[in-house]
Amino acid sequence: MATLEELSETGYAALTMERVAARARTGKAALYRRWSNRAELVVDACALAGFSQIEMPNTGALREDVIALMRQLAAKMASPLGGILRGLLAEMTRDPEFATLIRKRLHTAGPASLRNILERAVERGEIEPWILDSRRATVATDLLRNEFLIFGTPVTDDAITDIVDNVYLPLVRRPAPR
After folding, report:
1. Does residue 139 fall inside a structural domain?
2. Which residue stretches of the chain have pLDDT < 50?
């Protein structure tokens, strides 16, 4: 909790192990015994806070599953964690090691959930199997993240359904290019 509080007040760039230790009323050495650096501390704190926890929608239809997933992600973005997430995404552009750690340990929730949804859509015959390994697969969550970063929160339900109905579904249902 101390790490998230520090992140929300100072941002990642100003976060130090000393400040987190002081806020947690412990010693810096205690933190370093568990985490080798602040990036690992932050990623673990975000994971514990539920950044990556998503309930897997399973309505039996691609459109409804994608909309349900996008609504969950938008709700996380609108929560207090959203401000922290925005700061972490910005920091990823300045710190390549931190970016790698975020992609590896936190960024998997939306894309992994979306892949699961797409796999079920393939089984139902709604989309072709090649979509799973194409750039098209993650366009919905990419556009949601863009909406969040550019326009802030809340990401409206109209924006979500527009992304899904007018961009994503036509894209993943379209035949492979020749």
Report:
1. yes
2. none
